[in-house]
Structure prediction request, 725 residues.
Amino acid sequence: MRRRVWVSIGIGAMILAGALLHVWSALRTSPLSVPSFQSVRAAHRPSDARLLDRTGEPVHEVRIDSKARRLHWVSLAEISPALTGAVLASEDRRFYQHGGVDGRALAAATLQWITGGPRRGASTISMQVASVLSADLRPGGGPRSPLQKWRQIRYAWALESQWSKGQILEVYLNRVTFRGELQGVAAAAGVLFGKAPHGLTEAEASVLAALIRGPNAGQGLLTRRAWAIREAAGSRTTLPEIAAAAAPVVGAPTGAGPRVVLAPHVARRLLARGHLSLTAAETMRTTLDGTLQRVATEILKRQLLATQAGHVQDGALLVVDNASGEVLAYVGSSGNLSDARHVDGVRAPRQAGSTLKPFLYGLALDQRLLTPASLIQDAPLELAQPNGLYRPRNYDEQFKGLLTVRTALAGSVNVPAVKTLTLVGAEAFVGQLIRLGFERVTESGEFYGPSLALGSADVSLWELTNAYRSLANGGAWTPLTLTPEPRSPAPPRRVFSEPTAFILSNILSDRESRSVTFGLENPLATRFWTAAKTGTSKDMRDNWCIGYSRRYAVGVWVGNFSGEPMRDVSGVTGAAPIWLELMTWLHRREPSLPPWPPAGLVGKTVAFPRQAEPDRAEWFLQGTEPATPAQGLAVAHPRIIAPAPGTIIALDPDIPPSQERVVFEAQSGGTAIRWNLNGTDLGPASNLVLWRPCAGGHTLLLLDERGNVLDRATFEVRGGTRLED
Prediction:
């Protein structure tokens, strides 16, 4: 006991001597240098990077600092007076009377310690702020040394001489730890009570004030402490109200995760691009619409649950404003429905399926090789490739005969698309896809071969949706953006002429022409004007629905990130219902009227030969329209359909030679043509020819009436009897 008395007397003497020294020093030197209030506030960094939507509402939070949970800085005017009153009653009752050190509290604490009573703190709020601002004043796991205590007092005096009381209290409330990792009043009020600091009740304020001294207190002790603070603060709240406020605090986890998780893939994308620093979190506004983001997420999840029987697990969607290119909704995955929810389905490369067909036909229209009324035969086709014959088939395994370009595109018929690719050239189409922003289409046309017409290239939903947006914008391409940052945009890139873009939009919105494959009633039919296209990749691994109205472009992908195929789920049954519901929601109060035809178009009524299709009015690029209303249009050049050039035919030794035949088939183009094999005339090519094969190399020619060569195919027969035999 005697030793404790002497120690206490010694500490008291040191404090008194230090005070006298400080008074003497203040007369000779300037006050201790402390940072300005403005610099302390400016240096505040939330522990979460917060993404805001276009209206300023949070759509996602990303945790950056794992040591403490801090939110945005809150000014003193934004904090409930009930909380400031409760904190002052608990921590520093004479805050507005003292000059940084409360001598009465310090003397009382020393006396209690000398007499063996319960220890009590004597640090004022100013002294606690001093400890926060200076690392030298923080005890290393134990009590402060007398020297550290003296430095803390000097720092508090300096603060009081350079800051206002309101500034000191504001810093304290934004830096004090309440419970677990919760630092600052914004985090405590938001995580524990789901409120902003200005909305705290008197009971909640008393509970938060009690947490400062007892952050790990149980419900009973926390309630009693809050009740004592309530009495000191003169609050009128009742004990049951305080107990009710303390209950959720005790049950809350000490480490709380992000409160808003609507756009995880956007958050990671912006962080990766350096918009937000990994060491200095901040708030950032995006172009997203928070309400639309929620609606889009729910629509995607609901449809995926409805198609789970088809082994569908993942999906993604994108909504874009046509005029500005601003992304309004970005849903990268199905969330907890997926085994790989961190994969970004908006940016992941997948096979395009039939979604590239509009750009192929658009290239042929712009090159004036085809018109919407051009007739193309949908019939079995064989094309020789290095790894064998390529035989394109349609989704329904049916061939439909003579079709117009309009019907072939709207109905997504495959063989006419492959024939169109041979017409424009694979290299030219690759170049067009690159101009449309498809960054992964970097190989040569020879690499892809004829399958490029049916979407063998890898594309992303981001690229595909923006390419369709270029059609909505009259053939002009500009990049998409996720942030409304001021920028000087580059001039639009012209990828299609305005008349061609109009024709493509007109075809993709044509419900009747689409019915040849999908029927009149399908998920692409809206009550307002829209243009849309579906696509399904090989083995049903991906399906798409991309389309646009006058204002919005919407892209949807459905499949499995693992690459596993779906079961009986196509673009119409998987992605299209999501597209339809989302587009309907977007236009629930807003019309979408058909676009006006631009200059450079001519309208003509076309009657087709042999009743291939019903007579109809059609749009043509000026100069490509038929001379008379009754003139049907056909693909320009006669050509050999089978055998394909370079074909190698292996004869089957088990089949008698008299029974083996090779089919010669040609497309006439409306002219008289004849076969010539190795210099021998085989007669008219208007009908199929069944030729008895002979081993060796052969040259098959297609000639007109004057003997001019219209097409040529070389092929080889292996096995059997050679010609010279």
Confidence is low (pLDDT under 50) at residues 3-7, 23-30, 630-636. The first strand starts at residue 48 and ends at 52. The radius of gyration is 39 Å. The longest helix spans residues 2-28.
